[in-house]
Amino acid sequence: MEILVCVKRVPDSAENEIEVNGEGSDIERDDLVYSVNEWDNYAVEEAIQIRDNVGGSVTVVTVGDDESEEVLRREMAMGVDKGLLLADDAFEGADGKGIAGLLKAAVEKGKYDLILSGAQADDGAAQVGGMLAAMLDYPYASLVNKIEVGDGKLTVGREIEGGDQEMNEIAMPCVLSIQTGINEPRYVGIRGIRKVASLEIPRLGAADLGVEAAAIGAKVKRLDYFVPEMGDGADMLEGSTEEIIAKLIELLKANGGLK
Amino acid sequence: MTDIYAYITHKGGVADDSAMEMVAAAGTIDAGAAVTAIVTGSGADSDKVADEVAASYAKVLKFNLDALAYPNAEVVRKLLVNALPADAIVLVPHDTFGMDLSPGLSIKLDSSFVADVVAIEGMDGGALKVIRQEYSGMVSTHVTADIANGVVINIRPGAFSPDESKSAGGVVEDRSADAGDLTTRRTFLKIVEAEVGDVDITKSDVLVSVGRGIEDEDNIEIADELAEAMGAVVSCSRPIVDAKWLEKSRQVGTSGQTVKPKVYMACGISGSFQHMGGLKGAPFIVAINKNIKAPIFQVADVGIEADILDFLPELTEAINEL
Amino acid sequence: MENALIAPAEYFIFFIPTIVFSLLIPVIGVAIFTYIMALRTAPLIKAAPDNRFDRIPQRIYHVLKLWLGQYRQPRYRLAGVVHMMIFAGFLILSIRSCSLVIIGISENFVMLGFGGLLGDVYNFLKDYAATVVLVACGIAAYRRIVVKPARYAVPAKYGKDHTAEAVFVLGLISTLMISESLFEASSVAANVQNGLHAEFLAPASLAWLLKSALLSTPVETLQAVHIVAYYIHDLTFFFFLCFLPLGKHFHVITSLFNVFFMRIDRGNVKPVVYGIQDDQLDDLESFGVKKLEDFTWKHLLDFYSCADCGRCSDNCPANAVGRPLSPRFISIKGRDLIFKNYPIYPYGSRFKKSDALIGSIYEEDEIWSCTTCGACEQECPIGIEYIDKIVDLRRGMVDEGMVPQSLQKPLRALEKRGNPWGKMEKKRADWTKDLPEDVTVTDLGKGKDSAESLYFVDSITSYDDRMQEIGRATATILSRSGADVGILGKREKDSGNEIRRFGEEMLFQTMKEMNTDAIVDSGAKQIITADPHAYNALKNDYSGLPPVEHISQFIARNVKSGAIRLTGAAGDGKVYTYHDPCYLGRHNDVYEDPRTALDAIDGLKRVEMKRCRDRSFCCGGGGLMLFYEPEEEQRMGVLRVEMAAEAGADVIVTACPFCLVNMEDAIKVAGLEGKMEAIDLSELIVQHMQ
């Protein structure tokens, strides 16, 4: 099976590190470190496992810049066969639809049975996978937490409300967006990355993809970043621990919290 | 102004809360607009839903077909593309169904798409200005969408207060005949239900809920003791289940259980919307977290800046002494 | 000398001269033995290289102390003494045994040099030696069959009980002693009966007792006993010789070599491959041990040498808390695999191709459970090494991507941010903000400054709210003692002690390179740290650094010189006990300095736990071990605080931030809050500094 996985390089966001910059135009990126989007990593692991079971190859693709190569190499160190970088100044500022259009062009340059992406990334839009599927006219399933390979088709489980699983049969070629927890991704260390350091990663620009720069024009744009006023928010209890506990117990009693 | 449509999700003959929320959301786009609801399904359940929402929507388009018995997003998308005008404004809840449906729908309708919108500021020229969040809710952004060719907007469940005024008095139109060709290459098979755990957290009035702040599996004991003292039940957020420290049946959230307790103790929980999405009704929320910037403090009624590992045992002791 | 009985060399059985047997038995015995030994040597030749031929004088010293001197045996008193008896007996009797073989061919053979007085003294001694060995065998058999000490037990998952093998060998040894004594006693008895000159037997020895019993036995019977006893001895001797390499008694042969080739350095970890430099590591095809022959020949020799005594597992903290690790069975399973893959029987069998070790004889969790505390290696009387093997197995798993999810996050964080919590580099020195007014610490990460003394803080002390207090206490001690203190600040990366021991060698090399550059740039002449894991890494795994010492050594030195003065404890009514951190004590031999520091506080009441110094019990582990989620029945820390309570203490003093984390946690989990507290050495000293 020929599998393509779409990945994105995103900032590691733990512990108070994401803040809005001085002008409000972006998040403060000076001290950020980047890695592959967690959902995408699960998708890559799934692709590798499928390939190891049924044969074929896995290609990983991203829309980005020179720095995005590190993310492709990391996934190649995990066991992906090929990497592909879509980079061009013209891609700057593309919205979700623009990105999906670029990926579509890349898909059409190859022949893939299965296209995977992570269910969502740092902006939480969860859109590129579904858009790509519609552009290609492939069937789509999102939030996939289980894949079983059958004869020319797949049985997939989707994670839905209440922790239930919606089982579907989907024909190939198709696009699936992958939910975290579908598998346990293998570890990739520095050594693994060094081993793939000199592998070639082809780079495709607007001309290679046959995409008009104008067509990428974004219809959905971010105006700014801000942190909303706390507003009313919670009533913060102050004082010594004893005082806080005493007040809390009063409030709990009043609201039926203590039996 | 272009027509505004809202896709109604429902289960067991009852419309989801988002149905009323979308009425409010539509109002922020165009206060006087007549909003049309779309109800798909098969059988008596969807009839009931159509009738229920008719009170709040100017018009209800009902599609009752076997193919729609289960809301398969691929099927529904085809239907909507057949039934909707090209430049429509379509509202969909940003739940697991909406995430499945909308991105592809926007492509097929050749319209814009904005996901997980938490607030709508209104029209700004030919563009719609909305507010979204990024990085798990740590920052917010203002976003404009060019809606000249229409737009699909996924609204975050619970972000808009439901409009319960039921002042629209709409007409239900059965449009099943206009559904068109609904063949797709994805077929619904069945639902595999989540395993029922030893405890049903949806039945408890008081929940002591733990998040990442509990730090270690062994510390959950501290929550158990508080729950016991309060006559409550222990629940948790997703990371605790992913780490396998508690069963899935204890998870509160959009991919876990929906709960409607009277009192909710959010201990070491940051308050991501996926978690809060599982908390319905208007519980008295107490947030205890050592990170003063955690989003939970914006939705809680009472907040305490403390390390739960220190605070909870002291609280338990004090309650036990009562 | 004239003898009443006919010697085996001259005897005839049904017209067959028994000398034929005297020749055949040794020849066949030696042939089989040689064949077996050749097969046992084969895997060692295929194994990875190891550097064990350096520092010969040191190695000879180890042989004298551990092998000949049986130095570690008495750590288990009764078993130790019994073993020393058997060992000494064997050494003494080795000469007699060899002579006996030849006596069967040439009746009057006497070993070179044992003709005169030496021979007589020897003959006297050997009688007692045989007696002592027999008594020891009796005690040993009693312990095996009746007492059944817990450490000999074989948990069900590891297979059948080993008691039968043990008792069988005790039986063989006893047979050797009795048959040799009977051979001698029968001849002496016959000579005495016939008024001939008889060999003088040591009074009350086994041979003497047997002779006394045989004094009235008819000569024909004595003759039969003499011959039969001889050939029983001969057969048993060669049978035993060939049996040795087949089980746990291989140690009889290999222990000398195992101790000779034993590890000399402590605290460090072996290189990935001996002979490959750090900068050549990238070219290696495979890292670590994945199959049997990836182990070095010394490690395979370790497997052979395991005497199945169980002392390692008895002291292993992971084993004590129910983790799936038992060091003894790492060796036994390894040994059994070698036996299986290099079969002796049937003759000429092909060697089997090796499978992956993880998933066949070893489980992932088994190998990840080890805290590298070193208690097993400290205890083993034969010098078997475990830590290097565990690290090599982990290197193999990391190379294959088999890392538990709970460890992947901190490893990624270490790679990106230089600390396992993923906190920002620029916040690494934030702990200095709350230093007392008079304490100055230069942040070398900020610019062009330099400092005489570098305080290497390491990750947990820099970022953990509670451990930052150790950082402040340590800086206070250094500064107020007049040292010119600097810290690397954001240029400091995790020392990498655990990164290396968890098998992520290349990430460790990265940390090492960055830290070494930063330290060299700082111009520091000495490094001090309060973190024993950092101390161990900088001292033993890094190179090219100025001298490193632990804060306890600094305090002890300055207390003795008077540079640090401490107030008294003023009868605070508390009882203190010092917990030896593994990486300060066992791995680096720093036991006295922390105690000197504590005892310099006048009136401080201090007790020792039963398990102290090199028998200290690991707190649960540090570094990456804090993130690993093991399957265990309870926490190591809980066992340790219970030991402290048992010793009558209400304060545990420790000199390691990880020990402190684990102790404070354990106090809560064990429900000892209010009854027990934990404090770091630096904090305690600062409290008493004048």
Please tell me the total number of domains of chain B: 2
Please state the overall shape of chain B, judged from the principal axes of the Cα atoms.
elongated
State the end-to-end CA separation of chain B.
62 Å
How much of the polypeptide of chain B forms β-strand, as a percent range?
25-35%
Unreliable runs of chain C: none
Q: What are the low-pLDDT stretches of chain B, counting only 5+ consecutive residues below 50?
A: none
Examine the coordinates and then state which fold CATH places here, giving the name of the CATH topology of the largest domain in chain B: Rossmann fold
Using the CA coordinates, give the radius of gyration of chain B: 22 Å
Shape of chain C: elongated
CATH architecture of the largest domain in chain B: 3-Layer(aba) Sandwich
Number of strands of chain C: 11
Characterization of this structure:
The complex is a heterotrimer of chains A (259), B (322) and C (690). Chain A is 28% helix and 26% strand. Chain A is α/β, with parallel strands linked by helices and 259 residues long. Chain A has one domain: HUPs (Rossmann fold, 3-Layer(aba) Sandwich). The longest helix of chain A has 17 residues. In chain A, 47% of the residues are buried. With 322 residues, chain B is α/β, with parallel strands linked by helices. Chain B is 26% helix and 29% strand. In chain B, the strands form 4 sheets. A 7-stranded parallel β-sheet of chain B has the order 7-11-6-1-4-5-12, with helices on both faces. Chain B has a 5-stranded parallel β-sheet with strand order 15-14-16-17-18. Chain B is elongated. Chain C has 4 domains: 235 residues, no CATH class; 125 residues, Fumarate Reductase Iron-sulfur Protein, Chain B, domain 2, CATH 1.10.1060; 154 residues, Rossmann fold (3-Layer(aba) Sandwich), CATH 3.40.50; 124 residues, AF0625-like (Rossmann fold, 3-Layer(aba) Sandwich). Chain C is built from 26 helices and 11 strands. Classes of the chains: A alpha/beta (259), B alpha/beta (322), C mainly alpha (690). Chains in contact: A-B, A-C, B-C. Strand 13 of chain A pairs parallel with strand 18 of chain B.
SSE layout:
The complex is a heterotrimer of chains A (259), B (322) and C (690).
Chain A: E1 2-6, E2 9-11, E3 34-36, H1 38-54, E4 57-63, H2 69-78, E5 82-86, H3 96-108, E6 114-118, H4 128-136, E7 140-149, E8 153-159, E9 165-171, E10 174-178, H5 190-195, E11 203-204, H6 206-209, E12 220-226, E13 235-236, H7 241-254
Parallel strand pairs in A: 1-4, 1-6, 4-5, 5-11, 6-10, 7-10
Antiparallel strand pairs in A: 2-3, 7-8, 8-9
Chain B: E1 4-7, E2 10-11, E3 14-15, H1 18-29, E4 35-41, H2 44-54, E5 59-64, H3 73-83, E6 89-93, H4 96-108, E7 112-117, E8 119-124, E9 127-134, E10 139-146, E11 151-155, E12 171-174, E13 186-192, E14 206-210, H5 220-230, E15 233-236, H6 238-242, E16 263-267, H7 273-276, E17 284-289, H8 296-299, E18 302-305, H9 308-320
Chain C: E1 12-13, E2 16-17, H1 19-46, H2 56-68, H3 77-103, H4 117-147, H5 163-193, H6 206-214, H7 219-243, H8 251-260, H9 297-305, H10 311-315, H11 317-320, H12 327-341, H13 364-368, H14 375-379, H15 387-399, H16 405-417, E3 442-443, E4 453-455, H17 459-463, H18 468-480, E5 485-487, H19 497-501, H20 505-522, E6 526-529, H21 532-541, E7 548-550, H22 551-561, E8 575-579, H23 592-599, E9 605-607, H24 636-646, E10 651-654, H25 657-669, E11 677-680, H26 681-687
Parallel strand pairs in C: 3-5, 4-5, 4-6, 6-7, 8-9, 8-10, 10-11
Antiparallel strand pairs in C: 1-2
